[in-house]
């Protein structure tokens, strides 16, 4: 069977057939991931830390640590895939670990809670960077269909992310948190089934196989067999890090409110910088220029996700405490609004970029990033204005949350699917999976931003004692400050765009 993307028998709707198997695999994996995330912050505040006076701060610390570790693990998973397992085996291993994590999360036990999160962290490290890289491998270099292919793939992500908060959120808040978590685990199994079916029907050809290299022994075992064992052994270590969410220092000391994961990410950051400097030195002149652009857009993406990922923490709590949802949905289900907009606008915006390309007016990636950050800033500014329409109980109209998600989602479509595609174009083939891991590391550091902001906007004591108007003021004042930072970052990105465009060379 031919392994080229030009073979029409291996195409569907003008794209490689393999894209659509990966589409459904990722759809169900994201169903599991976002279904759990929609419940996570509310579950911690209302169950795990309900007896704590500072339950918001404790939940924010765990949420930030979990989010950071879940995306940082992609760097390691990407590297292991490049050198040892290959994309196929990595995706299977990651999916199995994540499914275990979701089902363990359905167990009503505090220790099981941290172990479950750890399983998901390790599993995501293998699954997430490799399935995205797999999509890029389906297209030849310079194939103009790649951007639209990633946009289609991105729509699959958001179909899963839209449906899961509605279903898992309904189950979790109506019948019990653990029913919602259990449904998320079932979704992960469906994702693995979709991927296995793609391999069974041979739509991937020879792509995604393990590298043909002689591998060293690891602890006396073949490296490919040792990796799954080491992955399971890593789970309790990650669980301990998540459990160690309390600050190591006191206010006024050099440690301040830093916990073990915060310090770990400072060390990781230094290590990543050193490694990237090494890569830049070894790269050719053309590779170096493109890698610089890849690094810069990753930094901007990290800022965007830092604001965007507040949707699973502060904005979910804001929806629970200060938004009049009018019986339309519960607070966890509001997590579906972002994905609803993405689904509605993915194809129109993809067609819009194609139309601008035909007119030779399509802005290059750095300009799109600048505009995306401006949209993010505008969305938070509008949400901050909701305080002017609050009722006597401090409840604001649901429309503000809907408008906020609509504008934020447009910004996301300007940045994330485009950036995801460009990382594969800007990275040398020998480290493309690793660079995809670095791309997802932007989300890891974004969660450090999320943790910092969430602690600043934490409600002390119970909501009943604090009062709706007090929580409203805390949240909306914070949203206004966030809007200023996002708009400022957008302006900087637009000012840098001419220089970055030149460095990108023939990559649009």
Write the layout of secondary structure elements.
Layout (H helix, E strand, L loop, with lengths): L10 E2 L2 E2 H32 L6 H51 L4 H28 L8 H29 L2 H24 L16 E2 L2 E2 H21 L16 H23 L2 H24 L5 H9 E2 L11 H23 L6 H20 L11 E2 H29 L5 H25 L6 H4 L1 H37 L4
Parallel strand pairs: 5-6
Antiparallel strand pairs: 1-2, 3-4
What would you say this structure looks like, in words?
With 508 residues, the protein is mainly alpha-helical. Helices cover 75% and strands 2% of the residues. It contains 15 helices and six strands. The protein has a two-stranded antiparallel sheet. The protein has a two-stranded antiparallel ribbon with strand order 3-4. A two-stranded parallel sheet has the order 5-6. The longest helix has 51 residues, at 55-105. Mean pLDDT is 86; it is low at 1-7.
Oligomer: single chain
N/C terminus separation: 32 Å
As laid out across the biggest beta sheet, the strand order is: 1-2
Compute the number of strand runs: 6
Radius of gyration: 22 Å
Percent helix range: over 70%
Count of helical segments? Answer: 15
Mean pLDDT: 86
The amount of beta strand, in percent, is under 5%
User: Biggest sheet, open or closed, and with what strands and sense?
Assistant: 2 strands, antiparallel
Principal-axes geometry comes out as: globular
Given the helix and strand composition, which structural class is it? mainly alpha
Pattern of helices and strands: EEHHHHHEEHHHHEHHEHHHH
Low-pLDDT parts are: 1-7
């Amino acid at each position: 069977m031919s392994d080229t993307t030009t073979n029409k028998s291996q195409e569907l709707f003008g794209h490689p057939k393999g894209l659509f198997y990966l589409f459904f695999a990722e759809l169900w994996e994201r169903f599991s991931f976002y279904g759990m995330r929609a419940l996570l912050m509310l579950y911690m505040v209302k169950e795990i830390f309900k007896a704590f006076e500072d339950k918001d701060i404790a939940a924010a610390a765990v949420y930030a640590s979990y989010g950071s570790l879940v995306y940082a693990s992609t760097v390691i998973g990407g590297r292991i895939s490049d050198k040892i397992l290959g994309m196929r085996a990595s995706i299977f291993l990651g999916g199995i670990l994540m499914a275990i994590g979701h089902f363990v999360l359905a167990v009503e036990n505090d220790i099981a809670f941290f172990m479950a999160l750890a399983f998901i962290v390790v599993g995501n490290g293998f699954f997430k960077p490799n399935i995205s890289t797999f999509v890029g491998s389906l297209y030849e270099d310079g194939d103009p269909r790649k951007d639209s292919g990633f946009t289609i793939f991105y729509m699959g992500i958001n179909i899963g992310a839209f449906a899961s908060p509605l279903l898992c959120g309904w189950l979790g808040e109506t019948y019990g948190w653990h029913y919602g978590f259990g449904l998320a685990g079932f979704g992960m199994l469906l994702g693995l089934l979709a991927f296995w079916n793609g391999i069974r029907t041979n739509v991937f050809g020879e792509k995604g196989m393990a590298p043909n290299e002689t591998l060293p022994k690891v602890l006396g075992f073949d490296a490919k067999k040792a990796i799954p064992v080491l992955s399971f052994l890593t789970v309790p270590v990650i669980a301990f890090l998540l459990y160690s969410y309390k600050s190591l220092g006191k206010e006024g000391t050099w440690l301040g409110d830093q916990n073990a994961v915060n310090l770990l990410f400072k060390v990781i950051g230094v290590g990543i910088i050193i490694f990237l400097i090494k890569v830049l030195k070894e790269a050719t002149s053309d590779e170096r220029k493109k890698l610089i652009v890849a690094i810069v857009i990753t930094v901007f993406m990290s800022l965007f996700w830092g604001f965007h990922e507040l949707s699973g923490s502060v904005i979910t709590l804001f929806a629970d405490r200060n938004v009049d949802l009018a019986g339309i949905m519960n607070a966890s289900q509001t997590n579906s609004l972002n994905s609803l907009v993405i689904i509605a606008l993915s194809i129109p915006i993809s067609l819009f970029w194609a139309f601008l390309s035909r007119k030779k007016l399509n802005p290059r990636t750095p300009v799109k990033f600048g505009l995306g950050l401006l949209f993010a800033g505008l969305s938070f500014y509008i949400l901050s204005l909701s305080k002017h329409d609050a009722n006597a109980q401090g409840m604001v109209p649901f429309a503000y949350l809907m408008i906020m998600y609509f504008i934020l989602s447009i910004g996301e479509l300007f940045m994330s699917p485009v950036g995801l595609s460009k990382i594969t174009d800007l990275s040398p083939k020998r480290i493309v999976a690793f660079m995809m891991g670095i791309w997802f590391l932007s989300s890891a550091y974004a969660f450090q931003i999320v943790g910092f902001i969430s602690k600043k906007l934490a409600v002390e004591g119970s909501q009943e004692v604090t009062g709706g108007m007090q929580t409203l003021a805390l949240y909306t004042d914070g949203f206004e400050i966030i809007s200023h930072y996002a708009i400022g970052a957008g302006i900087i990105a637009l000012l840098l765009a001419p220089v970055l465009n030149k460095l990108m060379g023939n990559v649009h």
